[in-house]
Write a structure and sequence with these properties.
Elements (H helix, E strand, L loop, with lengths): L1 H6 L5 H4 L3 E8 L4 E8 L6 E3 L22 H15 L12 E9 L9 E10 L3 H10 L5
Antiparallel strand pairs: 1-2, 2-3, 4-5
Amino acid sequence: MFKEAKDSFDNELLDEATSTIYHFGYSEEQSRFFGYAYRSGEDFVSEQLEEEFRQKPGLLNGGYEIKEFPIDPIKLSDLQKAEDAEKNIEDRVGIGGEIHSFSMQNISKDEGQADILMQIRRCHRFDDFEKAYIEMSKKLPSS
């Protein structure tokens, strides 16, 4: 489905751009959460995700263990941003802005239908948020 949607656009920028779509849900039959990734580099083939913390992009200088939330992911993001800034401009991902966490929790009181609480919250705003926002705004076409 995602590959067909991408193929329907006639835009040369899409040939250079990459994207990943994440799909999360809860299986009442299995009483567990699940996740899938659909990556443009893999023609959006469905890939089931393991239950673990993930970050994108990975660190060049090895792993980083998450022990305390949200403190450790914020530290990890600062490391990712610093590594990204060292790259040539054309190779950068462009890490910045804000960090948001998404969580899903089964808060059901009984064995009946699952009652899933989903939360999105801002965990961190990078120090250069305002400066970067102003710089990006200057590059927008005027109307």
